[in-house]
């Protein structure tokens, strides 16, 4: 009698929809699989992601799907027919995230506290929904944790010899290859890329070299960066002759200058994302900034009244006193640039650098990656693309929305591809074969 009652109940109660994310906890550069089960076959369904940033802004992405004959939707196997991304995109719910409608203008999503995960709420909704997600009841939901820091990675605040930053040491006994990691002209201390690099086996030092929006703190000369490099190379858990430099934007400009001009340090290799080789001889950072803004009349605005800076470094100068003699560089260098960079003329500069290195017999040291539809802010994989964001200018302290460039899909593809190639480049030039890596 009980078995008859059970079967009758199952007729009246539909099987609940299940949503799974595997792995539910992973490093930010790892892929996940999102699967929805127990839907009616052939039914429209919307997959939605929601993240509350540390600045208390909501970010979201969504894709429109139709369940298969078994009543399932798999993000890695099925096509999205619309939403913030389309096609077969296993990670579309992350890389196509954008601020929810009505958010503040010019937002950029970046992790501040690397010791906590990015929490992303993934939900399935009945029908093809485009708005008002938080007012609707989902069919099923799951939470996923995305981490920049792997288990066992140590975070050490550095205040040494006038240098400020954070050193991340991989798990295990070491010693490890090392990296000096420098972000761009926004200033401040950003740790998330260094934390991720340490999770891949590198002792990585996230360097703070001026305060956000403060030109008076940008009086950094070559010796500040040389000292920072030596803090890495002298650390007891770092292999002293296997230390490289990793820069983005202004951090890349500093990297190129440091690598060519320093007689004190010898980087094993360097990675330069979205940089150039303009640096007046003997100048400090403030001098570099002042030279750059001598051409501020070349700044233009787009149809949204957002500032486009790339013309400031065009045409490429012929004056050898205004740019780094990259022919002096003696280590392998990887240049990563976007063909739609609207902040610096990075591709034009890379061409000039290649010409200078060729003339010096050093072209074999140079590797160039250039990506169509890609802007200035080339981040680790699956980070949302921001074409234009709010920026506090060093020289005037005023805030403006700067155009970085890029289109969401090609820019995101470039982030994924370039990260794999950056890790391969670092592995080739810095690793010994038995260095351990973190696993989630």
Poorly predicted ranges: 1-13
Strand order of the largest sheet: 10-11-13-12-14-15-18-19
Largest sheet: 8 strands, mixed
What separation lies between the terminal Cα atoms? 49 Å
Mean pLDDT: 91
Taken from the alpha-carbon principal axes, the silhouette is globular
Structural class: alpha/beta
Indicate the proportion of strand residues: 25-35%
Count of individual beta strands: 21
The helical percent reads 10-25%
Order of helices and strands: HEEEEEEHEEEEEEHEHEHEHEEEHEEEH
Radius of gyration: 24 Å
Put simply, the count of helices is 8
Folded structure, characterized:
The chain has 440 residues and is of the alpha/beta class. The chain has helices at 2-12, 92-95, 192-199, 222-233, 250-261, 285-292, 346-359, 408-430; strands at residues 18-22, 25-27, 33-37, 44-52, 58-66, 73-74, 98-99, 118-126, 140-147, 154-160, 163-169, 176-182, 203-208, 238-248, 270-273, 300-301, 307-308, 333-338, 366-371, 388-392, 399-403. Strands 10-11-13-12-14-15-18-19 form an 8-stranded mixed β-sheet, with helices on both faces. A hairpin with a 6-residue loop joins strand 20 and strand 21 (399-403). The radius of gyration is 24 Å and the shape is globular. The protein starts with a helix and ends in a 10-residue tail after the last helix. Residues 1-13 have low confidence and may be disordered.
